């Protein structure tokens, strides 16, 4: 591997995103190349500084306010019926002789119109509005069952999902339960990170600490796992938390997280640390993590060769 390729792969290596074959080639190159090894150390130090820097000064509830503003903006968009005659005129004039790009654009317009029509379907079809619709809350509707009747009428069964906005402090049990639930169930990793960040100041609660330990061990996104680790650093002396840290050190695929766990365990020294680090040395494939582990063992006056 040449230095140019190594510099290109370096960010992927730091975040544990390289395929195993490329990771081995990269580590072999870094082991022999002083400039690239120094650049790797610089990247790790930069990551440590970013992790240690807290973002402050953002208004509380800014994200919630932005979401509400977006919903309000969508609510005042023109109804699909208002543009129906324009759309009909457009396609009656162009569809027969339109070029391919115009036909594609027209197809996209039809899809968008169908989406907007679905959002206001209960009102435009003359159906009785649901409780959520009467309250002006967005409703997602899905037809589940259709049954024609002998009288000529049709029975349609529709499932509707209503959005509910909860407001309160972190002392509110409802808010805390929803945030804990979001750490496990939210599909968006950014939302899981935000939920963990909001809960990190209340790790003294067994329920919240259990949720963060779950995120640290099992969340598929390394950013969520790193945020959970940062939240739990102050509890590294707790036996359950320490046990999870030890498993993460030996099992997590991200070298940045393994490196961070080494630093946490060194700051909270206990008798079991030598054995944990020696186990890591026996199986650790990442050169940088091995170097950090060797330094940790040296600071404990223990030999890395004792495993």
In short:
The chain is mostly helical and 307 residues long. Helix content is 64%, strand content 6%.
Structural class: mainly alpha
Q: Give the strand tally.
A: 2
Q: Kindly, what is the distance between the CA atoms of the first and last residues, rounded to a whole number of angstroms? A: 32 Å
List the secondary-structure elements in sequence, H or E.
Answer: HHHHHHHHEEHHHHHHHH
Descriptive account of the structure:
With 307 residues, the chain is mainly alpha-helical. The chain has 3 domains: 3-52, no CATH class; 83-162, no CATH class; 173-306, Alpha Horseshoe (Leucine-rich Repeat Variant). It has helices at 3-14, 20-32, 34-52, 62-75, 84-94, 100-119, 121-124, 131-134, 173-185, 189-199, 206-218, 222-232, 239-251, 255-267, 273-283, 287-299, and strands at 139-148, 154-162. Helix 2 (20-32) packs across helix 3 (34-52), helix 13 runs antiparallel to helix 14 (255-267) and helix 14 packs parallel to helix 16. It is elongated, with a radius of gyration of 28 Å.
């Amino acid at each position: 591997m040449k230095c140019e390729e190594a510099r290109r792969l370096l960010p992927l290596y730091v975040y544990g995103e390289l395929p195993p074959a490329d990771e081995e080639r990269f580590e072999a190159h870094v082991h022999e190349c002083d400039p690239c090894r120094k650049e790797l150390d610089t990247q790790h130090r930069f990551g440590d500084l970013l992790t240690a820097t807290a973002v402050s000064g953002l208004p509380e509830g800014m994200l919630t306010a932005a979401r509400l503003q977006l919903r309000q903006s969508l609510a005042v968009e023109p109804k699909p019926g208002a543009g129906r005659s324009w759309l009909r005129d457009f396609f009656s004039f162009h569809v027969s002789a339109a070029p391919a790009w115009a036909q594609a654009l027209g197809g996209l317009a039809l899809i968008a119109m169908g989406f907007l029509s679905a959002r206001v379907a209960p009102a435009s079809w003359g159906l009785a509005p649901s409780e959520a619709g009467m309250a002006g809350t967005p409703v997602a509707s899905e037809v589940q069952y259709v049954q024609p009747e002998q009288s000529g009428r049709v029975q349609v069964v529709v499932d509707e999902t209503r959005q509910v906005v909860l407001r309160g402090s972190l002392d509110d049990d409802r808010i805390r339960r929803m945030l804990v639930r979001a750490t496990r169930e939210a599909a968006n990793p950014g939302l899981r990170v935000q939920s963990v960040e909001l809960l990190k100041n209340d790790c003294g609660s067994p329920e919240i600490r259990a949720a963060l330990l779950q995120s640290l061990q099992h969340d598929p996104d390394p950013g969520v796992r790193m945020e959970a680790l940062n939240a739990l650093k102050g509890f590294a002396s707790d036996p359950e938390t320490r046990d999870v840290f030890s498993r993460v050190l030996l099992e997590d695929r991200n070298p940045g997280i393994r490196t961070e766990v080494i630093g946490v365990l060194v700051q909270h020294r206990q008798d079991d640390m030598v054995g944990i680090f020696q186990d890591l040395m026996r199986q650790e494939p990442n050169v940088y993590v091995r170097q950090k582990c060797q330094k940790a063992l040296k600071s404990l006056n223990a030999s890395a060769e004792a495993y």
